[in-house]
Amino acid sequence: MLEFGKSLFAYKQFIPHGHCYLWKPELVGLHIVSDSLIALAYYSIPITLLYFVRKRQDLPFNWVFLLFATFIVTCGTTHLMEIWTLWYPTYWLSGCLKAITAIVSLYTASELIPLVPKALALPSSAQLEAANLELEREISERKQAELALQEREAMLRQISDNLPNGAIYKVIREIDGSDRFSYMSAGIEKLMEVRAEDALKDATLIYRQFIPEDVPLLLAAVDESLRNLSVFDIKLQIQTPSARLKWLHFRSTPRQLQDGRMVWDGLVVDVTDLKCAEETLRKSEALLEESQQVARLGNWEFDIVTGKITWSKQLFDLLNRDPALLEPNYQENLQLYWLEDAGKLAQAIERAMSTGESYKLILRASPTYGSTIYIEGIGHTEFNAAGKVIRLYGTTQDVTERQVAINERKQAEEELRRSETLLATAQKIAQMGSWEWYLESQKQIWSAETFRIFGLNLTQSAPTQTAFLQMLHPEDRPVLQRHLLEAITNGNPFNLEYRIIRPDGSLRYLESRAEVAYDTQGQTIRLYGAILDITERKQAEIALKQTEIRYRAIVEDQTELIARYLPDGTLTFVNQAFAVYFGRSAEELIGSRNKSVIFEEDRQRVAQLIASISVDNPVVIVENRVVVANQVRWTQWHNRMLLDEQGCFIEFQSVGRDITTLKQIEEKLFQEKELAQVTLQSIGDAVITTDAFSKIQYLNPIAESLIGCTEASAQGLPLVEVFRIVNEITREPVQNPIDLALQSNQIVGLTNNAVLINQNNQEIAIENSAAPIRNREGQIIGAVMVFHDVTQNRKLSHQLSWQANHDGLTGLVNRQEFERRVEQALCFAKLDCQVHALCYLDLDHFKIVNDTCGHLAGDELLRQITGLLQEKIRKTDTLARLGGDEFGLLLIQCMPEQALRVTNDLLSCVQEFRFIWQEQVFSIGASIGLIGIDTNSESLTEIFSTADAACYTAKRRGRNRVYVAEADD
Predict the structure, then answer these.
(1) What's residue 181's pLDDT?
(2) Which of 49, 372, 574, 882 has the fewest CB atoms within 10 Å of its CB?
(3) Which of 795, 822, 842 represents a domain boundary (last residue)?
(4) Separation of CA 148 from chain center
(5) What's the pLDDT band for 367 if we cut at 50, 70, 90?
(6) Is residue 839 pLDDT above 90, yes or no?
(7) How many domains does one find in the chain?
């Protein structure tokens, strides 16, 4: 290249061109002037062309002027070389310039040839003038259209501002994904209680009024409209600033602007009233459907012209027909019912079609649909203008229950007739008769058994009231008359025992019960009742009284409360102690019901217990309350069944005592126990109590929930079987705190990091304490443990601890934790003569990635480098991010040679790594400083300072290398 340059400017071996002109001044001058003028002209032409192109950059093919200017400049330069070679024969340079001129000339010619057709195709001045006129016309029309558009837009905005219940809006979705309103009509203030100008400034004033349940629907509708360029059409509910709930209907059409933004032009209308009307209609339809469902009622129509039958959904359900089969035709419809009922239905339909008469029938559904059901069919007719029946319509209702009730009533009437016959037979067997006395007519009606009881002939009529009273024992007659008078005048029913003397002179004991009947004015019109012959019972009672006399003296001396009573509770005997206790005489008590002294709330329970006495269970102990001197007291009774010699029941005997003081003590103990129980049930901690042998006695609900078993299933089990705890870190079993409390005879707490493994194999972090339970003598009789769930607290503590010791971006330990571990390694090195290694690693070219691609790329690079380095080190080693692009690596129990191999491997993997970000590929290097930690290491500060200096040395020596710190560094 140097030789070519020398030859290009060499001229000593050539003769100057002036020799050709024999150095004649006239000839040389002529050439100099001619070539100078030509060169001056050639150089002025490009300047003119450049000025022209600069001023008319709108011209097509303006590049050809620049190409032609280049050609002219090269031509002018050849003429200057002609003048130069007159004295200096640098013909190689002159030839090269001519060659360049030739190349430029040929290229210009080659470009001009295909340019000619294009230039000829350019419009002429006349064409351009016509085009300008057309353009002026289009501009004028466009201005007119813009004015019309502005007028229409103003009119549209005026209309939108005056909408009674709506507003017009325009929403723009920006390139960054944010939304804003570019227009909002004044109607928005009435709809959403927000001024239009405020909504244009802050779109959240609109968005935050949507109820939370509708926000996902809104976002989904916007995404669908944006994705498919479909109409945005949705009804949403809002809550205005005044807490009013409204339904709004949004409808808008999306369009995309040239800059890529999306615009929705739309209308929002208040449809609250419409929604309310729809909801009312829906509820009405639902109520009608539910009513028909409850009433088992269905609708039907029969178009006589087309023969089509239409059923409602309820009718399909009523007749157990699949809706997929569609409605039956006329003949199929008749086949749904029993044959004889189908005939009645066909006749009714034919009559309705011919006469227009409605019908109402009870039909039975065909047995093919299961058990027989009764259907009430009602049909009506519809006429056309000519008065001809064209349609039948009506209802079909399941009246099975009603029809069954009618059938059952008929059966009941028949059963009643049979029952009356059976009653007469039963009265005869039981020696019980019935009677009626009509007061107005004084007529008496007796049953056949009543006649037999009174010893009268069935053929004669019932006696008059006077004759009836004459048959009573003289001593009992006044009593019955008094009860009859009270029943007539006061309406008091009665139950009375009296004696009668039959016509044959025999004496009979009777029990008579009477009730009162009234007319519509409340006046007594009739007495009726029953009479029972109790002669045998009375005779037994007389014999029993004679027996009582023999041992009454014995029981009267007893201090216990003694009484005997019949199954109905009638007292037949009480001793003196019983009478004194209740403050009444024995005569007042005998004959009365024992329930009169029993506290009202205990009567039913006492009656149930007494009723349980039998031959197999002859004694029942009952505790109940009684009322004595207006005070409620507790008594305990031993109730026994008394039998005669044949083993037949006679009556009950009760021996009682007052246990009020005992009950008061029990109640106080119960209340204290209940208070303790409620307290344990209500506290938020879990509570377990055991006996002295650590066997479970009680679990409160919180303990049941945490342990995973119920109190019933855990009672009596050793605590260790259901309460298993381990150390959360070491997983070693932890001694049971109750055992510790029982052994140490003092309150104990659980060690840290305790975890309960419950019966469902769930692990629950707990904190607890246990204490022994002592009796009055100070002896240990059990233990109690209180514990609670601290799982969430412990998780939060672990999380906070992790965050305090780790880097949030890479998940590696941070500088603080790394320094703690290095300090620990230094201690082990000095105590146990261990050898460790510490590396400082600084990424090369990280700043280029960060500056070129941004912080997101830098963060991703750090995460990928972290994963890359972690694959190359042991689990016992510690990799930490010390800050920025600096990493620290602690190699535990690693000799210098091994540490150097590890660091070289790390360097190689970083060198081979390629980071790709948005189609850009980056090579990353690393500078690593390595230092050993052994017994000679001085301090933590010196170790970190030396490692940092070694890393800096590696970077200073050219980066992308490992430098091992020396003792004399």
Answers:
(1) 85
(2) 372
(3) 795
(4) 56
(5) very low
(6) yes
(7) 7
